[in-house]
Amino acid sequence: MDPADLVYDDRGLLPAIVQDATSKEVLMLAWVDAEAVRRTLETRTTWFWSRSRSEYWNKGATSGNTQALRELRYDCDQDVLLMVVDAAGPACHTGETSCFYRSLSAPTD
C-alpha cells in the first residue's frame, strides 16, 4: 500500500500507535502524515508530525531512545497505524517505558 492511500483526517493526519515488538506493550501514540509515514518506511525508524511545533520529529534523535521499525500495519478502515518497534530506551518523555503508565479508575463507593 502507498502511504497516500491511507485515510487521513481533515488536517492530513492519522494516529500511530507504537508497540514494543518483544513485550507487546503499547508505548505511545503520536500523529503522522503521509511524509512521516514515508520517512518511517525509508529510514526504518519512527517519524511523527508534532501538532504543537508544526514540524517532523524522529523519535530518539535527541534523547537516544530510538525506535527501530519492525513492522508497519494499518487497520481495516486504513485510518490508524500500528508501528511495531524495537525500542532502545523509554518511549515517554517522563522516562517511563510507556506513555501509558497511569490508570484512570472509576470511583468506588
Describe this structure in words.
The structure is a single chain. This protein is mainly beta and 109 residues long. The chain has a domain at 12-87: Roll (Ubiquitin-like (UB roll)). Helix content is 9%, strand content 34%. It is built from one helix and six strands. It has one helix at 34-43, and strands at 14-20, 26-32, 47-50, 55-58, 67-74, 81-87. The strands form two sheets. A four-stranded mixed beta sheet has the order 2-1-6-5, with helices on one face. Strands 3-4 form a two-stranded antiparallel sheet. A hairpin with a 5-residue loop joins strand 1 and strand 2 (26-32). The longest helix has 10 residues, at 34-43. The radius of gyration is 14 Å and the shape is globular. The termini are far apart. The model has no long low-confidence stretch (mean pLDDT 95).
Amino- and carboxy-terminal Cα gap: 51 Å
What ranges have pLDDT less than 50 throughout 5 or more consecutive residues?
none
The number of helices is 1
Along the chain, the helix and strand elements come as EEHEEEE
Overall 3D geometry? globular
Helix-strand makeup class: mainly beta
Q: Kindly state the mean pLDDT as a whole number? A: 95
Please outline the major beta sheet.
4 strands, mixed
Task: Tell me the name of the CATH homologous superfamily of the domain at 12-87.
Answer: Phosphoribosyl-AMP cyclohydrolase
Strand content: 25-35%
**Which fold name fills CATH's third level, the topology of the domain at 12-87?**
Ubiquitin-like (UB roll)
Helix content: under 10%
- What's the level 1 CATH class of the domain at 12-87? Alpha Beta
CATH architecture heading of the domain at 12-87: Roll
Please report the total strand number as a whole number.
Answer: 6
Cα radius of gyration in angstroms? 14 Å
Strand order of the largest sheet: 2-1-6-5
